[in-house]
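ligand=magnesium ion
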Amino acid sequence: MSQMLAVKTENLGRVYQIKRKRGESGPTTLVALEGVNLEVRQGELFGLLGPNGAGKTTLIKILTTLLTPTSGRAFVDGIDVVENPQEVRRRINMVSGGETCGYGLLTVEENLWMFTQFYGLDFKTARERIQYMLEVVGLADRAKTKVYHLSTGMKQKMNFARGFLNDPQILFLDEPTLGLDVQTSRILRDFVKRWVRERPGKTILLTTHYMVEADELCDRVAIIDQGRILACDTPANLKKRLQGASVFKLQTTPLDTLEHFKQLPGVTQFAGHRRNGHTELNFILEDENALVKVLDAVQAKGGHLLSLEKREPTLEDVFIHLVGRGLSDEESPPERIL
Amino acid sequence: MATQVLQRETWRESLRSLKVATWLGWQIESNWTDPFLFAVYSLIKPIAGAMILVVMYLVVSGGQTGNPIFPYIYLGNAFYIYVGSVLMGISYAIIDDREHYGVLKYIYVSPIQVYFYLLGRGVARTLTGTIAVIITLAFGVVVFKLPVNFLAMNHALFWPVFLIGLVGLALIGILLAGVTLITARHNYFIGEAVAGALYLLCGAVFPLDVLPKFLQYIGLGLPMTYWLEGLRRAMLGTSASPLLAPFSNETILIILFSSTLLVGLISLSFYRWCERRAKEKGLIDMQTMY
Ligand SMILES: Nc1ncnc2c1ncn2[C@@H]1O[C@H](COP(=O)(O)OP(=O)(O)OP(=O)(O)O)[C@@H](O)[C@H]1O
Ligand SMILES: [Mg+2]
């Protein structure tokens, strides 16, 4: 096996058994991952981009030895995660965002200190790293605060700091910025990028459903949906797949039905959202000429054009192209401010 | 060579896990903002629990503390404080970490040695339990004229029995931690529940002789039976159980040791099995929402 791979999966699969009460119908199993073959190189900041329920967390749990796969194999730093979990744990760490954890009755500092001790750091190194990470996440003035007096976001920041304490060889970040404010998210993203750049050989596997996070942060991105990897490449190469295609964003007065836009000639992909007060239409067109048909169709539905924008393809467009729907839910647009 | 390095690493991890978990357990246990509440919860509650039966006996017997059954009951109840606190201390760590603090998965992602981690989490309760036991015993000697002389008792029997018994309890605690790991819901007091269930079976209150035959056999299979018997013999010089009387002190010690060893083997492999189940079912980071 190649020494240079930080993570490698071979036909990895995971099926969950779902408990059903008597009388309830529906399937009793759920395929969360299927035939996943992934190779993350050492030193890479690798992104796993996918919508809710795609299987991102499931994959992270398997790689961090918390969950057994139901088929296939997975290696972290060349070590089989099922056969030798302890050896894997010596080299990794993991942070999952959007949740709060920590011993409420200990202070921030004590919580972090405890983990440095599980990793066997000497006191001096432990102190320095804790201090450094608290400054990174902006909790330095809260070091002596008990965790149950922290806000949800602060707890999440503390957990983020915990992930870096042991200077892991491979770090797994499961939606690390989920639920954090825009400014904090940016700070953490910058730090993640810096951390991996300044430490040759260290690897980060990051999951996200924020397009920008994958695009601006990651060396390579795998797009995952419904438990399958659909594409895996650098963001630039992924976007090149849409080269020649024209990507348009239209805003119109509210339209009732959006279905027929998909069927228009020259439309490769279409996604539409109703926003308060207007309708947003995103098209990937074979070429610009198809736009005329689109505008006709808007008019035919009684809509008026509010704005029209031609964009460079984004990862989200690639995603729509591959999956046939948007990354985000209908209502909540992905965070675009960075 | 490589395996030697690995083994040394494993030992370091074990020691660290034990140390940090002990520290953590103590932080959690002693983290009462009100020392009065701490005293009530950690000391008065177990002492009161131990005294209930003593008081009942005194009422029923009309205050006869001279009957040999009285010190039998008294010591049994005093030391039984340990059973509840050690079993709870260890098995509850899983619930604490997973459900209350949401950290079990992060602990499981770090290179801990889980048995030592769990043992460490039980140390704090064992310490508060020890204080409660000492107070109960002192109270017995002073108020009820319990015929125990701490200086003149059979130390050569007492200490091995005492320590092996505690280790045995800790091992059963690990077994219960395994049960907790795979049955997250409604399992909050498994430690105390099991302690309660074993209470009658291991001769804490009255000699096994009064139990129906088949329950006697269960009792004879429990390390705690020999633990309590050994402690009584060491402290009182005699035993009030005709069933156990034929066993010499050495035999009691040997049976205690081997049954503890057996329980240990069962507990540790059972915990590993539970851990595997938990990983298969994705239970290590499950949080039961209420
Ligand atoms: N313990 C479980 N039991 C049953 N099904 C589960 C369990 N955990 C996850 N699933 C299912 O597996 C699928 C993948 O879930 P997973 O949490 O991996 O998705 P995700 O990509 O992390 O999504 P999100 O962006 O919402 O975090 C989902 O359909 C989910 O319902
Ligand atoms: Mg997830």
